[in-house]
Amino acid sequence: LGLALVHRYVVLHGGRIGLDSVPGHGSRFHVMLPLPGEMQTQQESAAAQAAPEKPDGPLVLVVEDDQQAADLLRHMLQRQGFRVEVARSGAEALVKATTLQPAAITLDVILPGMDGWGVLQALKRDVRTRDVPVVVVTIVDDPQTAYALGASDFFVKPVDRKMLLDRLARYTFTTRAEVRAVKVLAVDDDADALALIRESLGSEGFTVVEAPGGRRALEIAQSDQP
């Protein structure tokens, strides 16, 4: 487990792990990390090759005070077509969240001044930002607090890249303001199942129209065009 964690951190920083093994004498692991300048060059080169010239996807606000971590997140998101804005403090995050109205926010907990928990509370109290999905990405392993304060998701660093991108893609598929205009027709002859669907979709802002059978569903589909 320890070696696996070391490997993830080394790869995250652009390095690699090697192994020298001699039968009867044991094994020796060695770590190679690029110098700060080399790391920056590698990141910029990779981003230039893989990222769209002008990402035109949903805007994600990355709240992260560590420059290297912010750059890694920004490059990763831009490669997937997201537009990215970075905030380096809690105060800056609140200003940018209200003025830019991002489709989603990634939030570190350890920030200068106001910490991430304070930022999350403020975002959820403000009518202008309370519906913006907030994904907490931090080394602080406390998902209970994150969800209690209104976070949509929680990841412990080093983050699983694919899972984070999948979640952000889901959250930014449409904003809550757009969701409210979407009408969903739920068809099921089980009243409990319909109630579950209504509660689940309704909590996300969708307007749910119910039909207990096929004939009624066809009538609603023709009249309401969900």
Describe, in plain words, how this protein is organized in 3D.
The chain is α/β, with parallel strands linked by helices and 226 residues long. It folds into three domains: 2-32, no CATH class; 39-175, Response regulator (Rossmann fold), CATH 3.40.50.2300; 180-224, Response regulator (Rossmann fold), CATH 3.40.50. 46% of the residues lie in helices and 21% in strands. The protein has ten helices and nine strands. The chain has helices at residues 2-12, 36-50, 67-79, 90-100, 116-125, 143-148, 161-171, 176-179, 191-203, 214-224, and strands at residues 16-22, 26-32, 59-63, 83-87, 104-107, 134-138, 153-156, 183-187, 207-211. The N and C termini lie far apart (50 Å).
Identify the notable features of this structure and list them briefly.
alpha/beta; Rossmann fold; five-stranded parallel β-sheet; two-stranded antiparallel ribbon
Q: What does the radius of gyration come to?
A: 22 Å
Q: Which structural category do the helix and sheet elements fall into?
A: alpha/beta
CATH class of the largest domain: Alpha Beta
**Beta fraction:** 15-25%
Q: So what's the overall shape?
A: extended
Contiguous uncertain segments of 5+ residues: 47-51, 175-180
Q: Helix proportion of residues, in percent?
A: 40-55%
